[in-house]
Design goal:
- This protein has 260 residues and is of the alpha/beta class.
- The protein is built from 8 helices and 7 strands; from the N terminus they run βαβαβαβαβαβαβαα.
- It is globular and about 55 Å long.
- Helix 2 links the parallel strand 2 and strand 3.
- The protein has a 7-stranded parallel beta sheet with strand order 3-2-1-4-5-6-7, sandwiched between helices.
- It has a single domain, classed as Rossmann fold.
- The structure holds NADP nicotinamide-adenine-dinucleotide phosphate.
- The site of NADP nicotinamide-adenine-dinucleotide phosphate has 28 residues, from helix 1.
């Protein structure tokens, strides 16, 4: 039986860097996203370069109940997932009522619902086999509210809380759960909304931090970059209101005038 690492949102940015890092370590891959052409080219390149098996699956993970379709397709192809990287995600910005609610709903379905259900479905097999890894992409905004990106920050707070809880539930079942919380990183993520800072990480930095955290100790949270470390520390130093005033001022400058 051959094991696979399934990565959502592998067609670009941080997901692409995770795919490369796992390929370099000899893992077979299942790469999932909407851009079929990119996935197809990537599957061919990585299989040839790293001498691994690469399956690609084209899914829009912001559709209702889509995780079960991914799970069924993995089983139909007779594949076993021992590592799951829930990476696909996006952000909306601006005053809550100015961003199209349909898009904010898709943001919740992708960042929260698909991530939760994929974990729910694949962790059962990992638990039965006594071995597995689940990596969920949080954010620096997992630790504090972030005005003008309220829905996104709330979805990433969910990712952190969910990951920490299940890391405890499955700690004696051979399953490692890690929430990776990147600081702003140079990817297509900011294409639509514009960035809040010029102090950017690279996808390779983020994945390097994730592997360092996985390989040493039993930490559940990988805080990548100085901005994430500061944001995670803020609630320990300040009242929630004071922290909110700081993040509100920072994001207000960048996104306060965004209309969706
Ligand atoms: N960049 C940052 O500063 C930053 C900071 C903190 C956290 N993060 C998190 O890191 C993760 C990766 O983001 P990134 O920065 O690498 O962004 P990115 O370059 O925009 O990549 C996003 C990936 O998700 C896929 N995706 C988007 N919508 C999808 C959908 N509906 N169904 C399936 N796949 C979908 C995209 O592929 P297709 O378009 O082909 O579907 C792409 O592969 C996200 O969860 C994000 O919230 C990013």
């Amino acid at each position: 039986m051959e094991n696979y690492t399934l990565i959502t949102g592998a067609s670009s940015g941080i997901g692409n860097a995770f795919a490369k890092a796992y390929a370099e370590r000899g893992h077979n891959l299942i790469i999932v996203a909407r851009s079929g052409d990119k996935l197809k080219a990537m599957a061919r390149d990585y299989a040839e370069k790293y001498k691994i098996k690469v399956e690609y699956m084209i899914f829009d993970l912001s559709l209702e109940n889509i995780a079960k379709a991914v799970y069924d397709e993995v089983n139909r192809r007779g594949l076993t997932v021992d590592t799951l990287v829930n990476n696909a995600g996006f952000a909306t910005t601006g005053l809550l009522h100015t961003a199209d609610y349909k898009i904010q709903h898709e943001e919740i379905l992708l960042n929260v619902a698909a991530m939760t259900e994929l974990t729910y479905l694949f962790i059962k097999g990992m638990s039965e086999r006594g071995k597995g890894t689940v990596i969920n992409l949080g954010s620096c905004v997992s630790f504090t509210p972030f005005p003008y990106s309220a829905v996104y920050a709330a979805t990433k707070a969910y990712v952190l809380s969910f990951s920490e809880s299940i890391s405890y539930e499955y700690r004696d079942k051979g399953i490692r759960v890690l929430a990776v919380c990147p600081a702003p990183t140079q990817t297509h993520f900011f294409d639509k909304c514009g960035n809040v800072t010029d102090n950017m990480r690279t996808p390779a930095n983020v994945v390097g931090s994730a592997f360092k955290t996985l390989e040493k100790g039993r930490k559940t949270v990988c805080k990548d970059g100085i901005i994430t470390k500061l944001q995670a520390f803020m609630p320990r130093l300040l009242t929630r209101r004071a922290a909110l005033n700081i993040t509100g001022r920072i994001s207000g400058r960048a996104w306060g005038k965004n209309n969706g």
